[in-house]
């Protein structure tokens, strides 16, 4: 059980300026800024390699007014980005926090390009739900694992030590309550103590901790957790023990489109470009354009906790731009048929209803009417034979609640004072999605990883 130890002075095996707990996007980004200032830094990663949910992700980072957007002549501005985030979270996120993330992520992406040779481009073939402009930034390979690989390479160029198989178990504080180090455990049970003037919590949220999920997000208690197993919620537990302010623990990112039983993410681009979801009765049950996060709950409430993405050859080609989708095709998850009746037969759902659903979507596209769920279908995006389908379920991707921080990503207590020496970034910090699953705007996860990692790292670099 993660805890707090009071030990003054600390008796340590090693001494460093800054300990970073967690080797995902947040921790790696922060480490680059700390090391750039000539400070000693160590990344502790409990697993045998850096990865985190970042490496499992699609690696898409939303940012406005960046150099990458300008190179591609894509119009956008931070006010629009702010409006999109606030509209999605139903104006429940703290506005100052949203602005620090928006400004932080723009600075982080530009800086990673100029100072650390990590190139970004912006996906401009479709808009993610809730985004008014093209602003999803990706490394050339458009995968989370290559984002991690490039960050790790930048860290190795600065000779930043990364200690894998090192689980931080306790934070060590002085009598005055200042952070002075941490205790760690190796897989063989060996204990180590690290003295550090600053600690950055980059250990994400509690998606991998069944008990915490059941307590704070009961509707996802039995859902498949699709994120990284290392994310066990220590940041929240340490924060609670330190009297830190913690917000929006019921907030999270779900996803309503994970191939079942293959467990492969099927890009939501297919829904945004004309595809739709039906249940086993062959009927639609929601507005797919509200977002993939809340769609997790909608899908889990269907019979068998399953739904079927219905699309066509045009959208199959679009999906194939993503590695996950190509993997799903190889695994046999994508079912194809020349007619809608044959497709219904193959996926064993009600063919009569599915044909009616398709006809209704096409009618809506032709007339311009908005459907009963609030979705508008467009004539140029109507589905045509041959058709495709994939059986999907709803899953939990990561949690969005966490530690409340100030403009430098320093952790705050409930009385507003700073926990001296403690920073939080990425999924360890409270996000910008508010307290509900429907508040998650695409990209809100890596947004706080890069933005707050950048802010924490730069503040430590300047403060020393
Ligand atoms: C399938 C999938 C797709 C996604 N796609 C996107 C996307 O395209 N865009 C987007 O914005 N978001 C996406 N997300 C969410 C995004 O991946 C996360 O929000 C983001 O990666 C969080 O980064 P992080 O650095 O905070 O945490 P992580 O990348 O999870 O890293 C945290 C690390 O801390 C380590 N750790 C935890 N506790 C300890 C401890 N006690 N001691 C030592 N190490 C510890 C963990 O092992 C882990 O490696 C996706 C998530 C999933 C699951």
Summary, kept brief:
The protein is an alpha/beta fold and about 475 residues long.
Shape: elongated
Q: Count the helices. How many?
A: 15
- Strand coverage percent: 15-25%
**Would you identify the CATH H-level superfamily of the largest domain?**
FAD/NAD(P)-binding domain
- Assembly status: single chain
**Which CATH architecture of the largest domain would you pick?**
3-Layer(bba) Sandwich
Outline the biggest β-sheet: 9 strands, mixed
Could you tell me the number of beta strands? Answer: 21
Q: What is the secondary structure topology, with strand pairs?
A:
Layout: E1 3-6, E2 14-21, H1 25-36, E3 41-44, H2 52-56, E4 61-62, H3 67-71, H4 78-88, H5 95-116, E5 121-122, E6 136-138, H6 144-157, E7 162-163, E8 167-173, E9 179-185, E10 191-201, H7 210-216, E11 224-225, H8 234-242, E12 246-247, E13 252-259, E14 264-265, H9 269-272, E15 276-278, H10 292-300, E16 306-312, H11 313-319, H12 323-330, E17 335-337, H13 340-347, H14 351-367, E18 387-399, E19 402-403, E20 410-412, E21 418-424, H15 444-463
Parallel strand pairs: 1-8, 2-3, 2-10, 3-7, 10-21, 11-18
Antiparallel strand pairs: 4-6, 5-6, 8-9, 9-10, 12-19, 13-14, 13-18, 15-16, 16-18, 17-18, 20-21
Helix pairs in contact: 1-6, 1-15, 4-5, 5-15, 13-14
The chain binds flavin-adenine dinucleotide.
The site of flavin-adenine dinucleotide has 43 residues, from helix 1, helix 2, strand 8, strand 18 and helix 15.
């Amino acid at each position: 059980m993660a805890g707090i130890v009071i030990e003054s002075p600390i008796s340590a095996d090693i001494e460093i300026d800054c300990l970073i707990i967690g080797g995902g996007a947040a921790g790696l980004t922060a480490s680059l800024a700390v090391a750039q200032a000539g400070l000693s830094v160590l990344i502790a990663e409990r697993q045998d390699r850096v990865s985190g949910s970042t490496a499992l992700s699609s690696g898409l980072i939303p940012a406005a007014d960046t150099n990458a957007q300008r190179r591609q002549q894509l119009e956008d501005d931070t006010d629009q980005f702010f409006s999109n985030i606030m509209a999605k979270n139903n104006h429940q996120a703290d506005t100052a926090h949203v602005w620090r993330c928006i400004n932080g992520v723009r600075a982080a992406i530009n800086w990673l390009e100029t100072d650390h040779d990590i190139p970004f481009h912006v996906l401009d073939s479709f808009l993610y739900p809730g985004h008014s402009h093209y602003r999803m930034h990706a490394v050339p390979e458009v995968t989370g694992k290559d984002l991690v690989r490039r960050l790790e390479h930048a860290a190795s160029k600065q000779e930043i030590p990364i200690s894998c198989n090192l689980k931080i178990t306790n934070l060590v504080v002085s009598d005055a309550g200042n952070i002075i180090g941490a205790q760690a455990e190796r897989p063989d049970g060996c204990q180590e103590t690290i003295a550090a003037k600053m600690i950055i919590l980059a250990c994400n949220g509690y998606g991998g901790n069944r008990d915490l999920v059941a307590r704070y997000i009961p509707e996802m208690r039995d859902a498949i957790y699709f994120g990284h197993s290392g994310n066990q919620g220590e940041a929240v537990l340490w924060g609670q023990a330190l009297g830190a302010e913690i917000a929006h623990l019921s907030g999270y990112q779900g996803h309503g489109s994970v191939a079942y039983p293959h467990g492969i993410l099927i890009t939501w681009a297919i829904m945004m470009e004309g595809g739709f979801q039906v249940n086993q009765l062959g009927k639609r049950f929601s507005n797919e354009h509200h977002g993939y996060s809340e769609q997790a709950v909608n899908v889990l409430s269907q019979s068998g906790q399953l739904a079927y993405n219905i699309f066509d050859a045009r959208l199959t080609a679009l999906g194939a731009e993503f590695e996950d989708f190509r993997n799903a095709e190889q695994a046999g998850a994508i079912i194809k048929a020349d007619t809608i009746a044959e497709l219904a037969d193959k996926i064993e759902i009600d063919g009569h209803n599915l044909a009616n659903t398709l006809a209704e979507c096409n009618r809506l596209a032709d007339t311009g009417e908005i459907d009963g769920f609030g979705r508008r279908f467009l004539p140029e995006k109507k589905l045509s034979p041959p058709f495709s389908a994939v059986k999907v379920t709803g899953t939990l991707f990561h949690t969005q609640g966490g530690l409340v921080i100030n403009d430098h990503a320093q952790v705050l207590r409930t009385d507003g004072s700073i926990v001296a020496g403690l920073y939080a970034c990425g999924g360890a910090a409270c996000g910008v999605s508010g307290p509900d699953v429907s508040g998650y705007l695409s990209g809100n996860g890596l947004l706080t990883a890069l933005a707050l990692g950048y802010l924490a790292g730069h503040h430590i670099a300047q403060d020393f």
